[in-house]
Every structure is written in structure tokens, then in C-alpha cells.
Amino acid sequence: MKTKKMEVLDRIKHYEEAITKGHEYLESGKHANWNGFRPWFARKLRDGKEVPPHKDWVKNVYLPRLQRAVRRAEKALERLP
What we know:
By secondary structure, the protein is mainly alpha-helical. Helix content is 63%, strand content 5%. It has helices at residues 3-28, 55-79; strands spanning 45-46, 49-50. A hairpin with a 2-residue loop joins β1 (45-46) and β2 (49-50). α1 packs antiparallel against α2. It is elongated and about 55 Å long.
């Protein structure tokens, strides 16, 4: 396989692992402190501890965003020679 295809496949794999972690967080609260959920610029602290993301945010923002990214990467993979 060519390197560009490998890179796109690795990206898709990474996105799918993140989607799995998001679903596990919604179901059981597992991966609450995963660094993929952390905000980029400012940390949310409550009583000196980091606050896990709100489950509605994960369900309505994070997961759809990653699912769109997977679709875009799959389309890019189809266009590669």
C-alpha cells in the first residue's frame, strides 16, 4: 500500500478508537479522564479536580464530529489512486 493510503487508514483507525471510547463513556463512565475529552485551552476544575465532559456534549457534539471525520476520510481514501 502507498504511504498516503496508510496514513488515511491510520487516521480512520484513530477516529474509530475515539468513537469507541466516547460510546463507552456514555454507557459506563469509563474513560472520563481520557485526554481526548479535555478542552484545548482551559481546564475545568471543581474542588481541585478536573471535571469530566458532560454526557450531552459527548453525544451531541463530540461523536457526530468524529463520525463526520470518518466519512470524510473514507471519501478521501476512495479518491486516492
